[in-house]
């Protein structure tokens, strides 16, 4: 599977570990940066992740910033994106099972790197349950 990732300066310290885990588990990674802890604007690195999902270039994404909120709000502006801000493995699991989330937003200032990697593993390995949840997911995207 192809996974696009993007992070701001706060998310940068976790980005390489996320990439390594994805590659080690057979995924292709499109890295949209950033590549240092120098201050940057997160939308510049997150909109490309949303564009990749909208275009079908990637099936999943991972976005990271300090709180996770800015990157989640930004990437959720893209029509085919269903980003979930997760801070516990159980939230990552439910985001996939019930919401068919396709982008994991990680708040790096509030979770350890170990927790982030555990959430990533769960997010990537958990399948959407469908059923009654399918009806709800279809109502997420607006018609505008």
Structure write-up:
- The protein has helices spanning 12-24, 43-55, 69-75, 89-99, 113-125, 132-138, and strands at 2-7, 28-31, 60-65, 83-85, 103-107.
- The protein has 144 residues and is of the alpha/beta class.
- The chain has a single domain, classed as Sugar-phosphate isomerase, RpiB/LacA/LacB (Ribose 5-phosphate Isomerase B, Chain: A).
- A five-stranded parallel sheet has the order 2-1-3-5-4, with helices on both faces.
- Helix 1 links the parallel strand 1 and strand 2.
- Helix 1 packs across helix 5 (113-125).
- The radius of gyration is 14 Å and the shape is globular.
- The mean pLDDT is 95.
Which features characterize this protein?
144 residues, Ribose 5-phosphate Isomerase B, Chain: A, 6 helices, globular
């Amino acid at each position: 599977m192809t996974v696009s990732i993007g992070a701001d300066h706060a998310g940068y310290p976790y980005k390489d570990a996320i990439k390594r885990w994805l590659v080690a588990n057979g995924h292709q990674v499109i890295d949209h940066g950033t590549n240092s802890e120098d201050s940057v604007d997160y939308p510049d690195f997150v909109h490309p992740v949303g564009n990749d999902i909208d275009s079908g270039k990637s099936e999943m994404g991972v976005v990271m910033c300090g709180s996770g909120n800015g990157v989640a709000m930004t990437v959720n502006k893209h029509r085919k994106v269903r980003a979930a801000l997760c801070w516990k493995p159980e939230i990552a699991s439910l985001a996939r099972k019930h919401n068919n989330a396709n982008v994991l937003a990680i708040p790096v200032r509030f979770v350890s790197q170990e927790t982030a990697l555990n959430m990533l593993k769960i997010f990537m390995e958990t399948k959407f349950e469908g059923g009654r949840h399918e009806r709800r997911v279809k109502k997420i995207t607006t018609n505008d």
